[in-house]
Amino acid sequence: MAESGHTVWTRKDLIGIQDLSREEIELVLDTAPQFVAVFRRESGIKKVPLLQGRLVVNWFYEPSTRTRTSFELAAKRLSADTLSMTASSSSAVKGETLHDTLANIEAMHTDVIVIRHSSAGAPHILAARHASHIINAGDGRHEHPTQALLDAFTMREHIRKRRGDPCAGLDGVKVAIIGDIEHSRVARSNIWALNKLGAQVTLCGPSTLMPVHVERMGVRMTTSLREAIHDADVIYALRIQLERQAKGLFPSLREYIRLFRIDNESLRHAPPHALIMHPGPINRDLELATEVADGPRSVILEQVSNGVAIRMAVMHLLVNSGRPA
Ligand code: CP
Hints:
binds phosphoric acid mono(formamide)ester, four-stranded parallel β-sheet, Rossmann fold
């Protein structure tokens, strides 16, 4: 169950997409459909015992709707026991270090720690010193690996359906990522994943929201929305981080809307088959018009549904690889 082709999962942790090979990414994507099938069972019983008796801790230092609930549900559907911790409810507020907090949690025999933290590198530092399987649920501006995996899975499912080819991959698929690339861990993980899977990535947004030397990651860059989307198979809008607008990174929201919003008007310049994606949470009518977010091309809620299957696949691979199925 933990093999696809000749690839076998050997990693203890999932810290980032940058570290993974194409084969490892494909192994996760190829493991997810069996869990999608679990949700669709005629019996209505959406649970498998693959993590029965295991303890999964969701440790979130930043707000989250999708990722936190998705990991919790994924763990429950694998029959694991779950615990949740937030920064404000942990002894971090009394000055305890991350290592000490985790050492104490691990003393209760944890198996998987899912961590979101505002500091890039926090999951990596914990993974090096602790025995539990560590999963990065978003660290600063660095990476959000399970978001990129669920996005790649969603894109691949649609490409397979459109081409009528159940084995199609993302080679040559054109993906335009629009918005605040500079501050986005989602963009970074997606760029790594899509490049490794053979897709062609174009980044578009205000030049002030574009990381320096990002083209070294093997992507195209443009400040013209029309140019970015004219041949796109997928248009991926990012959240404008309003909390950063105070720093004046672009002149006004009105100008951002005029130049970069994905709406029915801008979509006139995109191919009719182009999918609309967004990691959430959406600023409605800012980076994405409501008519598009809720329109027929949008697969935003499918991304959320697929996220549970992808996170089940990741936890299953981490915990059960090397064990008899
Ligand atoms: N996509 C995403 O990470 O959403 P949350 O912040 O709600 O988890």
